[in-house]
């Protein structure tokens, strides 16, 4: 097929490859036809386009990103590749996070995600040092500007040991509510965590907010805040959606203990998001020592218990992850390799499509007739072909029309990196 000459109007993509789970069939992949009419998926008709088995997916959902941190690496690189190095470097760089700086880097990141075929994004926004007062209004502007191209949500990012039921944290929660966001918290072992969580859930419930946690982002097996979150959710009856991200320490815990915790997570109805690229970069890093652990959480065991498991980009070219481009195909490809998703369930592709969309409350992507023809087309006919190459020649259709996939030039950000 010629990737540059898709017609407009009514047409049919003849002989495409799609994941069987997206069309309600068993197995891995099936060949089918997809009709497009008036920007929507429709019954086949109109002009035929021979696709030669090219793979088609709905556009992606990226449910855990950090658009406010993105692309600061040139001025704020991680000195040693560690989590502690990332944290201290970002805190120092907050001084540069003016509204104009945040806006420019967010827009750069969103253009990358859009070009790669992402339709919905949740970003976390740093709250420390009063940054939430500057970043949330910028996010609101970007959400309006990108409406119709990328659906945007935001979650606040604050440390659990800074939580108070009043003061700055209450102002943060009010800001989140004003901007129709999600209330977020980073959890790690601190005294009185269960009580902190009770008050946190109460704060969210009173404002009608969903919640999103960074959880146990460490290989220290003694870090069990995921377990505490599940217990407090069941104790309080908090019934809004709860997302938990990272959960790395599960991979180093005693198996029986970890499985018991996962049983609690399933009962509590938590939604998990794994960030395989960032965790591979940060976790188990020590100078002059080869890492032993991958950092990925127990995604197979979670999925087997009916827990909603997604994958997402996380950080992009900042001290927490030096690489990345908000390309969800790269995320899925790396997750497949890191977490051995191959030789496994046949529907893992939903971890970047329907599962994160449902976890966050975005519109669930589908190939059903009547759905928006927001699709990504790859020159690949099977999973090994899809994952073997970066698929830089993919086509992205929005409303049935091919978009301009030109990526922004890093040089656009040069002036911002001169501090």
TrEMBL record:
<dbReference type="InterPro" id="IPR052349">
    <property type="entry name" value="Metallo-hydrolase_Enzymes"/>
</dbReference>
<dbReference type="InterPro" id="IPR011059">
    <property type="entry name" value="Metal-dep_hydrolase_composite"/>
</dbReference>
<dbReference type="GO" id="GO:0004131">
    <property type="term" value="F:cytosine deaminase activity"/>
</dbReference>
<keyword id="KW-0378">Hydrolase</keyword>
<feature type="domain" description="Amidohydrolase 3">
    <location>
        <begin position="172"/>
        <end position="393"/>
    </location>
</feature>
<protein>
    <submittedName>
        <fullName>Cytosine deaminase</fullName>
        <ecNumber>3.5.4.1</ecNumber>
    </submittedName>
</protein>
<dbReference type="InterPro" id="IPR032466">
    <property type="entry name" value="Metal_Hydrolase"/>
</dbReference>
<dbReference type="InterPro" id="IPR013108">
    <property type="entry name" value="Amidohydro_3"/>
</dbReference>
<dbReference type="Pfam" id="PF07969">
    <property type="entry name" value="Amidohydro_3"/>
</dbReference>
